[in-house]
Amino acid sequence: MVAAGIYLHIPFCKSRCSYCDFATDVWRSSDAVDGYVDALCSEIRNSKFETRNLVDTIYFGGGTPSLLDPKQVEAILSVVKRKFTVEPNAEITTEMNPATVTSGSLAVYRALGVNRASFGVQTFNDRHLKLLARGHDANDARTTFRLLREAGFDNVSFDLIAGLPGQTMDDWKRNLEEAVKLEPEHISLYLLEVHEGTPLAEQLRSGRRSLPDEDLTAEMYELMIDRLADSGYIQYEISNFSRPGFESRHNTKYWRLDPVYGFGVSAHSFNGSERYSNERDTAKYVRLIEENQKAEVFRETTDAASEFIFLGLRLNAGIDFSEYQRRFQIDLEESYRNEIDRFFEAGLVEIVRGHLCLTRKGMLYSNEVFAAFIPARDVAAIAN
User: Fold this and answer.
1) Are the C-beta atoms of residues 335 and 319 closer than 8 Å to each other?
2) C-alpha of 134 from chain center
3) Are 95 and 67 spatial neighbours (Cβ–Cβ below 8 Å)?
4) Using CA atoms, how far apart are residues 173 and 220, in angstroms rounded to an integer?
5) Tens-digit pLDDT profile for residues 347-378
6) Which fold has domain 316-383?
């Protein structure tokens, strides 16, 4: 039986970033946070998930989970371990923002078994950080990284964003050089997405800000691939690079269609055949848990055979034709012969040792490839 992952959503932030469209709330009072943690623990305790499944990854996402008091993290992990069978070598990740942790809190996290930090750097350019309303500066990022190392974190991931308003190629090169110099074990690249209703979307609409053109953003992406490869990082997914052995085990579950049980506001779950998600509003989520012990608001049966293609192609290893045949009793190569031939001729896919893979060019045009294997509506739903 495939081991499952646990996702725990902590929505609270010091402030809201200008580009953010996630389910987040500005930290207003300790009482509100205490009430949310109580609701989250109650949801886990009373969930109907298959608890005989082993769990080998736990992921605190947000929001800014590092704003929690370590005692709250301990309470949540305690409930998870009572409910599920957590493997001794489980990967336990907490997302952290610069200037939200101390030596003391990091020491407690490590003692609790948190062994991976996903660190929201985004950029080392103070002007861009201010534009994004990140609430920290580049020096905060450097200091927090040093504290992580001193606390014994030997598995740290950086998030970086390319394609920011006003960002030049020189800006991006300096970001990469600083990241490489610090030597994290993992780096995730995000191309900026602009969501309607965010402050950044309004700034762009009004002409106060402008984005780099698509060609420049593509050049930034390709530069990152080359620079990180030169520094010993392996690209194992379209947006993710790591030292050997430091791939994100939790995120890989999503791309491999392994089960993931989500808890908290807006959390999404997948049990192998269905996707379901919780209420997005924090206050409503807490009320639903208090009244019904669950906050699910959406559920659908998935087309797993199509999703496996869309998600599997994100991985550099691609899709194993024989595994696909075993899993879905479908001959992928024959069923999608026309699509595969068309993308092969365009230089977007290749077949390597029985695997269908995106080429480097294909990664730049991945959405066009994905759309051929799964309806556009479903692509958008899964991506979000």
Assistant:
1) no
2) 18
3) no
4) 8
5) 999 999 999 999 999 998 998 999 898 754 44
6) Arc Repressor Mutant, subunit A (1.10.10)
Strands 25-26 and 12-13: parallel
Amino acid letter at 244?
Answer: P
pLDDT range class, residue 30, cuts 50, 70, 90: confident
Give pLDDT tens digits for 34-90. 999 999 999 999 998 766 679 999 999 988 899 899 999 999 999 999 999 999 999
pLDDT value of residue 97 = 86
Record the pTM. Answer: 0.91
Long-range contacts from 133-139, C-beta under 8 angstroms, 24+ separation = 133/15, 133/16, 133/17, 133/18, 133/199, 134/17, 134/97, 135/14, 135/15, 135/97, 135/99, 136/97, 136/98, 136/99, 138/178
Supply 53's token pair.
Answer: 């499944």
Decide if 67 contacts 15 (C-beta within 8 A): no
Q: Report domain extents, the chain.
A: 4-254, 316-383
Q: What is the phi-psi region of residue 322: left when phi exceeds 0, alpha when psi lies from -120 to 50, beta otherwise? A: alpha
Task: Give CA–CA dist 128/297, Å, rounded.
Answer: 37
Indicate the helix (H) or strand (E) that contains 177.
helix 169-182
Q: What's the DSSP call for residue 211?
A: P
Residues 6 or more apart in contact with residue 359 via CB below 8 angstroms: 347, 348, 349, 350
* DSSP letter for each residue of 85-123: EEEEEEEEEEEE-TTS--HHHHHHHHHTT--EEEEEEE-
Residue 261, token pair as written in the block: 């049980």
Cα four-point dihedral sign 322, 324, 328, 331: negative
4-254 maps to which CATH number?
3.20.20.70
